[in-house]
Amino acid sequence: MSLVKCPECQGQISTQATTCPHCGYPILPVENNKSKRGRPKKSDQQSLMRLPNGYGTIKALPGNRRRPFAAMVNPKLTLNEDTGKSYYTYDFLGSFPEKIDAYKAILSYQENPYDLKNDLTIKELYDVWLPKYIDDNNLDDNRRKAYDAIFKYCEPVYDIKVTNFMPAMIEDLIKNAYKTGDRGNEAGKRIAATSTVKSNMKILFNLLFDYAVFLRIVSDNYARTFTINTSKESKQTSRVGRPYTNEELAILWDNIGDIFIDMTIVQCYSGWRPGEVITLSVNNIDLKNRTYTGGIKTENGINRIVPIHPKVLPIIQKYYNEANDVGRPMLFGRTKQFHGSYRYIENSFRHSLLKKEEELGISGHVLHDGRHTFSTMAKKYGINEFARKKIMGHAIKDLTDRVYTHMDIEWFRNEIEKIL
Question: Distance between CA atoms of 106 and 93, rounded to whole angstroms?
């Protein structure tokens, strides 16, 4: 027997220990790591994992069961008036095939307790799910606000029990979604959901009912039993993107200094998506090597390194210095915080850019048109197709290029600087 460190708290523990005496972390012997089914052995029943006081307990259920370990929480001291003896009662959390699964379930429950009566309303489920989802996925406050904005369209079903939901109910809610305006000219008015909002509602319900299944409130995710087709509606209501003409680009260059025009020009020479350019982190700007790193949405687009085109380098330097002066974490943004944030949201970007372009005699554009412009100019000036797709964050379909081709940043720089 010797001493080793607990992987959880780094405390000294015996190699024979099944749990850490300091923090209760399970230390399973190698021979016990194999999956077991059926009735637990007596030794298993006698060595149940230690949990912090007040967390609950794990009980071995009798019989030959597929899930022989019951997770019990919320201990309550109860007095037997007939015998005068006291004992603990628990709420049943769930049964599991392995002790470690029951142990983890209890710890997860104690981190974010919820009503075990299985009569949560959709609003109560959302209030339990959101902080856990934000914390588990390390998301920022802007994502929380985005989910709150989408959930406003679900107000008609706030008080309906999760167990009473049917697929048709969710589908009907999304197809006919609306919210009541609460500010400005929209106050008190009924606002219909756009196709994008409806798609996001479907995603939100998928996540909510995934969590409801995890909590054992329902056995199936009803939201995943149907699809919402908003593509036709989206095509009818959205404008088709198009690149800026040479004349329009010249007008934009004549009006640099406006942050929304500056962001658009940067898009034209980098291929960033609107959501990517407004979230570029100052920490990911490398002026020495003239690159910026960013990207969202797809596996190919996330954390991609793009060379800074010489024509937009002065713009990047200006906002880099400004961000450091005001303490702003992102390259482009406000000079003073608004509602606790320096960041512009896409709606602000869209509204302000279209208004400014209208003043300059430019019309008919959408936020993605800077990206359309980059792709078009890249094709026009003969940028290598592999470079164009990698810079834009698109998937490479050719096996040889996708798996076996590795080009350095200087090669990409030479390609992007072909754009005049």
Answer: 8
SS3 2: coil
Distance CA 108, CA 102 (A): 10
Q: How many CB atoms lie within 10 A of CB 196?
A: 14
List the structure tokens of 50. Answer: 């230690």
Q: Does pLDDT of 255 surpass 90?
A: yes
Q: Would you tell me how many other CB atoms lie within 10 Å of the CB of residue 344?
A: 20
**How many CB atoms sit inside 10 A of residue 262's CB?**
20
Q: How many whole angstroms separate alpha carbon 264 and alpha carbon 68?
A: 60
- pLDDT at position 47 is 47
Q: What SS3 class is residue 70?
A: strand
Angle between helix axes 313-326 and 259-268 (nearest 10 degrees) is 130
Residue in this structure with the two tokens 């959390």, named with its chain if needed: 93
H helices of 381-418, where? 385-392, 399, 409-416
From the list 316, 291, 287, the residue with the least C-alpha distance to 304 is 291
What is the reported pLDDT for 266? 97
Instruction: Please name the residues in contact with 175: beta carbons below 8 A apart, sequence gap of 6 or more.
Output: 198, 228
Q: Which residue has the tokens 């939201």?
A: 223
pLDDT value at residue 1: 59
| DSSP state, residue 66 | S
Q: Over the stretch 62-93, which tens digit does the pLDDT of each residue have?
A: 888 887 888 888 888 888 888 888 888 888 87
Contact 386, 399 (CB under 8 A): no
Cα 374 to chain centroid distance, Å, stands at 28
Long-range contact list for 72-79, CB < 8 A, 24+ apart? 73/106, 73/109, 73/110, 73/116, 74/116
**Per-residue CA distances from 74 to 91, 214, 258 (Å):** 6, 18, 58
Q: Is the pLDDT of residue 232 over 70?
A: no
Q: Are 327 and 277 in contact (CB under 8 A)?
A: no
Helices and strands per DSSP (H, E), number in the chain = 16, 10
pTM: 0.50
* Strands 178-180 and 190-192, sheet pairing: antiparallel
Q: Which amino acid is at 159?
A: D
Provide mean pLDDT across the span 291-299: 84
